[in-house]
């Protein structure tokens, strides 16, 4: 496997301090940490985190086998085995196959009982409706800085069964010709997209915070003002709004819905299509069976969410790359893109469908390294740090089809009270302080991402 990784001194120092603080607080509350050997047995039927090892199969091969069998294999290091999210029944089935399955921690953190007051749930995370209200509020309050667009529809809305529009905000000092949904306009574009996987709560909240940070700091922060004067900063806060509705339907114990809400005959969280395997670039029918977490859909770009997002991105970015996978984008390319996921503390650059280096590898890696200096996450490509390849992913699509540098940030650590899909809302302050400078670094690269063309 070809892989580039930064020295881990910063990462380990920060993680040790954060883990120690959380350990003390959680032990005081009588709780177990994810990854703790002393973790309690989970409730029957309640999904939880486990590590799986095999006496005869290496971790990489075991991860691939578990994915093919429909298990929910997670990102992150395989220090204690292949990490998965599973029920106690799932764990017992794996043990019956001769595998070692170790409980690593609970899915949920305890929060006070609350309703979805003010468009929030689970201690402060925003519902889809909460995001929509926020989008409208900032666009109405600052029309000189924000333009709100509808770029597509969710699956339920296309069926006339409720659902949502997919919204995008253009944040810039608005001048004539700005924020068009075509390649017109003189400013380079940077797009941040969140919550394509609905259960990854921290990502949508970072998008919400990014919007407020930009709007509230224009005219007061020189770096933000310069960026907004020269760049269109697009934000898609919720790429999978139907899925987020499912997640937030339980305000204290969110539902672990990854996919969209497409009815496919599967029960529970098996319903839907994985939108991050559904793009029209290297779509792979073998990514998952109908009820598995990585089910890619019946065909490439089969889902309305995918269609809306791809059409929007294809509209605002110029195409500067020949169609061949390993033909380089030109040095006059402008723009940048990031999709936020969780959790593994990774800055991922193209390609994710293969370990073969992308033709603009040096420049792509340089930008990812600048992001890593800010958030101290590891820099990887291919299957590095992920346990699997990701054909049909959005970041590969935008680079492979448009030439625009596309990145994924996997937000949050693998082992602490702030790990997992449902971290305490108080964790958002540390996620923000680490990743806001990474967003700025990537946005600044949009003007001229490929100085060397290599």
Roughly what percent helix? 25-40%
Mean pLDDT: 90
Task: Give the termini distance in whole angstroms.
Answer: 20 Å
Shape: globular
- Strand-and-helix sequence, N→C? HEHEEHEEEHEHEEHHEHHEEHEHEH
Global Rg: 21 Å
What amount of the residues lies in strands? 5-15%
Low-pLDDT residue intervals, each spanning 5 or more residues: 1-39
Sheet of most strands: 8 strands, mixed
Query: Which topology of the largest domain does CATH recognise?
Result: Aminopeptidase
In which order are the strands of the major sheet placed?
A: 7-8-10-9-11-14-12-13
Name the CATH superfamily classification of the largest domain.
Zn peptidases
> Which structural category do the helix and sheet elements fall into?
alpha/beta
CATH architecture designation of the largest domain: 3-Layer(aba) Sandwich
What's the number of domains?
Answer: 2
CATH class of the largest domain: Alpha Beta
- Count of helical stretches: 12
- Work out the number of β strands: 14
Structure description:
This protein is an alpha/beta fold and 454 residues long. It has 2 domains: 66 residues, Alpha-Beta Plaits; 328 residues, Aminopeptidase, CATH 3.40.630. The protein contains 12 helices and 14 strands. The protein has an 8-stranded mixed β-sheet, sandwiched between helices. Strands 2-3-1-4 form a 4-stranded antiparallel β-sheet. Helix 6 packs across helix 12 and helix 10 runs antiparallel to helix 12. The two termini are 20 Å apart. The relative contact order is 0.15.
């Amino acid at each position: 496997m070809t892989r580039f990784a930064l020295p881990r001194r910063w990462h380990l120092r920060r993680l040790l301090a954060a883990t120690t603080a959380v350990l003390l607080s959680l032990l005081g509350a009588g709780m177990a940490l994810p990854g703790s050997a002393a973790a309690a047995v989970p409730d029957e039927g309640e999904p939880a985190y486990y590590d799986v090892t095999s006496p005869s199969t290496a971790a990489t091969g075991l991860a691939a086998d578990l994915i093919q069998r429909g298990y929910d294999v997670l990102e992150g290091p395989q220090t204690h085995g292949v990490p998965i999210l599973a029920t106690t029944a799932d764990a017992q089935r794996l043990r019956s196959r001769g595998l070692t399955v170790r409980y690593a921690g609970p899915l949920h953190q305890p929060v006070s009982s609350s309703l979805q007051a003010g468009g929030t749930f689970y201690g402060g995370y925003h519902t889809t409706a909460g995001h929509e209200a926020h989008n409208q509020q900032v666009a109405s309050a600052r029309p000189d800085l924000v333009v709100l667009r509808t770029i597509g529809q969710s699956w339920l809305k296309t069926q006339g069964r409720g659902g949502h529009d997919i919204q995008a905000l253009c944040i810039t000092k608005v001048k004539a010709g700005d924020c068009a949904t075509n390649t017109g306009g003189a400013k380079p574009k940077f797009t941040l997209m969140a919550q394509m996987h609905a259960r990854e709560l921290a990502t949508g909240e970072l998008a919400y915070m990014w919007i407020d940070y930009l709007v509230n700091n224009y005219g007061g922060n020189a770096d933000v003002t310069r960026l907004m004067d020269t760049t269109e900063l697009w934000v898609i806060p919720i790429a999978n709004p139907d899925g987020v509705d499912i997640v937030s339907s339980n305000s204290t114990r969110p539902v672990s819905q990854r996919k969209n809400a497409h009815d496919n005959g599967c029960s529970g969280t098996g319903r839907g299509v994985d939108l991050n395997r559904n793009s029209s670039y290297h779509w792979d029918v073998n990514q998952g069976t109908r009820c598995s977490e990585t089910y890619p859909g019946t065909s490439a770009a089969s889902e309305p969410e995918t269609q809306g997002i791809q059409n929007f991105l294809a509209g605002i970015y110029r195409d500067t790359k020949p169609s061949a996978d390993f033909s380089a984008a030109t040095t006059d390319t402008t723009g940048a893109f990031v999709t936020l996921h969780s959790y593994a503390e990774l800055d991922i650059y193209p390609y994710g469908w293969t370990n073969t280096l992308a033709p603009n590898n040096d420049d792509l890696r340089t930008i990812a390294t600048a992001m890593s200096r800010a958030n101290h996450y590891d820099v990887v490509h291919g299957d590095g740090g992920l346990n699997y390849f990701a054909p049909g992913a959005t970041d590969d699509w935008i680079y492979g089809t448009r030439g625009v540098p596309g990145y994924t940030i996997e937000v949050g650590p693998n082992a602490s009270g702030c790990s997992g899909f449902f971290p305490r809302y108080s964790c958002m302050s540390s996620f923000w302080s680490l990743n806001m400078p990474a967003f700025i670094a990537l946005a600044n690269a949009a003007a001229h991402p490929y100085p060397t063309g290599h």
